[in-house]
Amino acid sequence: MLFHRRFHQLPILLVALGLLAALLSLGMRYRSEARSRRVALVLDYGQLRALASATGVPGEDALRRFKSAGITHVSVTEETLGALLTSGDLQVKLFPTPTGAEYRVTFGDPHTADRVGDYAARLVRGATEVAPRGDRVVLPGPGGGKIYLPGRFEDVSVTPTGLNVATIAQIRKAGLAPVARLQNPLGLTNDSLRWELQRVKTMGITTLIFAGDEVMGFAGLVDETAQAIRDLGLLYGSVEFGKQRGDQGMSELLKDRLVRVHSISSGEMARLSPKEAVERYVRAAAERNIRLLYVRLPETVSGDTFQDNLDYAHRVAQDTARAGFGLASPSTFGRVWPDNLLGRIPTAIIGLGVGAAALLLLAGIIPVPRARQATWAAVFAVVCALLVLSGKNVGLQLVALLAAVVFPALGFVLFPQPLGAFEDHSHAVVRNRSQAIIPAAAEFAAISIVTLLGAVMVAGLLSELPFMIKTSSFAGIKAATVLPLLLVGFVYLTGMTGEYPSWQEEREAVAERLQRFFSEPLLVWHTVAMLVGLVVVALLVARSGNDSGIGVSETELRVRALLDRYLGARPRTKEFAMGHPALLLGLAMATIPRWRGWAFPLVLLGIIGQVGMLNSFCHLHTTLKLTVLRTFHGLWIGGLIGFVLIWLWQGLQGNRRRHGERRRV
Fold first, then answer.
1. Where are the beta strands (DSSP E) in 313-370?
2. I want to staple 580 with a disulfide (CB 3.0 to 4.6 A). Which of 71, 195, 264, 609 is the partner?
3. 248 or 535, greater pLDDT
4. pTM for the full model?
């Protein structure tokens, strides 16, 4: 392929310029990720207290021992009126009145009474110092007065009453930091939410994780809650897979004050061994930018239940530290570039390269005169750059999708194989199968390099804070999975190439090939092959992305765990076990005419590996270092499997020379 004769220099230069800008952007992202390596290990106070009580370990001693095991924080959920009744911290007596029932609340601790009165007066909108008609709850008020809440006690039993001050002091005494878990009361107002958050701040707490199914302020006061969190310098813990209502909006507003949280539900813990749970926590921090691990204890009965839970927490801390993280207050991520027009210039330069690459792909499949290539490249490049400069997420997503589709297809267009409509294409001369491995390896490397150029550009475009903390994600992941496969398949079916003298001649040739193709009789094996292909594509699309909705077998999970353990980064299955080996074998078979019927589907299957390789770089919440390592492992393991398959293929009938296996050139 003589690029300087077929393509104008301008699009090639623009691609090179875009690549340099992408590498710069990735370098800045790497620095940002390297600075954010602190992970908090958090225990739930309620679970810890239950464990200590059941095993006869004093609470303060339990806290100190878990601190020594590596735990850094303990979360405390604010109490409610109902919880205080259950714990015996308050008592309720019922008295009839002429207009209803009166629920008189008394406390054994005056400090608790004062705290409850403060919260109830602010969080129940109907609270008053004058006795209302009908049912009412009576709480001790300031200066010996009373606070009346309308309704029955069970109606207001879910009213938050703040964090237990004695519990916070106990946690701090053990050398641990408290994390607040706050509710979302129905009577919340802008003033009361700010008052409550200020009270949490006054207690020296800096990290919040909202309890229940909603974030504080949902649905009408999310903006006000986020602003109060920002003004007070607090951190918001967004629970991964938690699906709390209002979390998306809160996360969007607090990108620079957000810490991603991972936990394991009690139901999941029952199915996991301690070793599997530890590996899951460490993977969350290493692979998905999780910076707060909400460690759930196994709570399984053993000969020494407390010590076994302590050892489990120690393993989580030890393995997290071994993965390169510091155990401390969680770190947040900063922006890679400033959020202004000047900060968007590097990504706009990447957009120039993407637009130029789109022109190269177009000129590779239809005849575009070299003189026009420069003009069209400039137009494509400027349009892509302006979409990025607009600052709109949709513009950035469109350019990233264009790159994700163009580059995997471009590799197969620049290095076409003698398959389908290209059977008479000029190609390496191979007399027997023993010589096939060298051109196959060279072309596999060339195609992979083109795909990796696109991967670098997509990652460079999307390497920014919203994608790194997953408040935004690449929306075109499924389209980028299937479109290159369809595009390359169509090109090989029709024989479209920019080497035709004119567009009219190419159009006539393509129409003739399509007519010939659709005139072929439909055989049973054609139908079976088509159905198998559709199933493979459907599964590929369904399993793309992080939340695919398609389950993973226990066997695959165990293989993944083994690869993670011994390689440090698990390569993607569709790359090393399917796409790369299939492409290598297909490229080798394509060098011998009588094997090209088998080579064609293998090469198409190999596109999956190229697409998967690029898609790995679209998961911006995975660190760049891990993505590069994962891609490297996928290439060498997939290449090794491919070479083994080629060796087996070569050994089917030996390496004797055969007449008629000389390539047409």
1. 326-327
2. 609
3. 248
4. 0.84
